[in-house]
Amino acid sequence: MRRSKLLYVPFWATYVFLYLPIAVLVVMSFNVGDSAYSFDGFSLKWYGELARDDRVLSGVVNTLIVAAGSTVIATVLGTLLAVGLVRHTRSKVLEAVALMPAVLPDLVIAIGLLILYGTIQLTLGLYSVVLAHGVFAMAFVAAVVRTRLTGADTSLEEASRDLGAGPVTTFMKITLPQLMPGIVAGALLAFTLSLDEFVIAFFTIGNSEQTLPIVIYSMIRFGVTPKINALAAIVLLVSFTAVIAGQRLTKIGESRARD
Fold first, then answer.
1. Rounded distance, CA 49 to CA 42, Å?
2. Across the strands, what pairs with 42?
3. Whether the Cβ atoms of residue 195 and residue 238 lie closer than 8 Å to each other
4. Pair 25, 232: CB distance under 8 Å
5. Sign of the CA dihedral running 198, 204, 208, 211
6. What is the pTM assigned to this prediction?
7. Residue 31: beta bridge partners?
8. Which of 69, 72, 96 shows the shortest CA–CA distance to 183?
9. Where is pLDDT greater, at 38 or 15?
10. By C-alpha distance, which of 183, 173, 191 is closest to 146?
11. 186, 141 in Cβ contact below 8 A?
12. pLDDT tens digits, residue range 21-52?
């Protein structure tokens, strides 16, 4: 019994190591003082400072534009990719290549896309980041939808085809509704990835515009302040909410599939 309890020690030690700094960051975002390291009292003034910072607000708008655009691209292409991998091919090589962006280092993807943009002489801007994030997140959407598609009931699709429905009609009327929880979960994951992503955006954006992670990077170079803590806390809340919503939708879809 004592040994089994000792097994929980590294488990909880890992959780404390990972999440205690995040908890401290959130607490310090409510600090009334200017120090990011000593808590002098509770206040919401740094959140008010954020609301009056034009640079931060511009970064938020740019990030939302990039996240929304890349989510649409990643969701559409990722869903089609998942359907193709599960329904129309059994090639392990093709599957590995299709899902490779999910495991490649961000730096490799960023440099590769930057070279590609330079080769085709594409001017960098928000749209170049939208394309980059869309390609990057597409593999994650495909992985989520593929898992959902593997457990889908194929008998309904076969019945639809037997009754004379074409491939497009079968996909829109039968396959797509079954995949919708996985598609929404994948879309939320893609949105979260784009919202927090720094390396690819840093390499593929122009000089005149900045996303929020780049704004945070430029601010933190001069030291950590409670304003940065407040900004990080807001980003953390949005990301956490999107991830939890995605997980809930996936579980709901799986429970409905079992029923």
1. 15
2. 31
3. yes
4. yes
5. negative
6. 0.79
7. 42
8. 72
9. 15
10. 183
11. yes
12. 888 888 888 888 777 677 778 888 888 888 88
Residue 47 and residue 26: Cα distance in Å, rounded? 12
Three-class SS state of 6: helix
Amino acid, single-letter form, for residue 68: A
> Residue 31 carries which DSSP code?
B
- Quote the CA–CA distance of 2 and 259 in Å, as a whole number: 41
- Distance (Å, rounded) from C-alpha 223 to C-alpha 219? 7
Contacts from 49-57 at CB under 8 Å and sequence distance 24+?
A: 49/227, 49/230, 50/227, 50/230, 50/231, 50/234, 53/227, 55/210, 55/215, 56/212, 56/215, 56/231
Q: Which two tokens stand for residue 35?
A: 């120090």
**Alpha-carbon distances, residue 113 vs 106, 116, 164, 194, 215 (angstroms):** 11, 5, 44, 16, 21
The answer to whether 26 and 233 have CB atoms below 8 angstroms apart is yes
DSSP, collapsed to helix, strand or coil, labels residue 42 as strand
Tokens (6 digits) for 136: 């990057």
Tokens of 249: 């939708």
